[in-house]
Design brief:
single chain; alpha+beta; six-stranded mixed beta sheet; 10 strands; 16% helix; elongated
Length: 167
């Protein structure tokens, strides 16, 4: 079994892919499988949150690209920025990870949260897409530029993310 303890260099070419949900990308110690089915162990620095497009270096020198796997989400959309700000505030007040994009806010599917957001006056829909929530004002790693809008509709694809040079 291969182990991964850190990041590869920006610009390295990945030979393996590792699809993970946001919850799994938030774990620092993890036993899982590559897309090929090969078992791996992650041993990352405490507080590391992986993002789609991150490149990891395995102990056998293979480069592994992290994929933000599609997962069940709820999304509230509106042209009213005040309504969206209220929804983001109330979700954040409950320490819920949110993905914010122009005209919408997405969060992990939860009928209680969906009902709360709906009661604020926003239509809520369910979708399956990659989830890349905000890192927070004090967090996040590296210097990534991500398109934070989940795909809408049937057959949502995994987002491709551009990678800026890590500092």
């Amino acid at each position: 079994m291969i182990s991964i303890e850190g990041f590869a260099n920006p610009g390295d070419i990945a030979s393996e892919r590792l699809p993970l949900s946001f919850e799994m990308r938030s774990k620092n110690r993890l036993r899982t499988k590559l897309e090929s089915g090969e078992e791996i162990c992650l041993f990352l620095a405490r507080g590391t949150v992986l993002r789609g497009g991150d490149l990891l270096l395995a102990n056998d020198n293979r480069v592994v690209e992290v994929l933000a796997a599609p997962e069940r989400l709820m999304q509230a959309a509106s042209n009213d920025p005040l309504l969206l700000a209220r929804a983001a505030y109330h979700l954040g007040n409950r320490h819920v990870a949110v993905q914010i994009a122009s005209g919408r806010v997405a969060f992990a599917a939860d009928h209680v949260l969906g009902s709360m957001v709906s009661r604020l006056g926003l239509p809520v829909s369910e979708l399956e897409a990659a989830f890349e929530p905000e890192a927070g004002a004090y967090g996040g790693h590296g210097g990534h530029a991500h398109d934070n809008a989940p795909d809408e509709g049937k057959g949502a694809r995994i987002h491709e993310y551009s990678r800026a040079k890590k500092q």
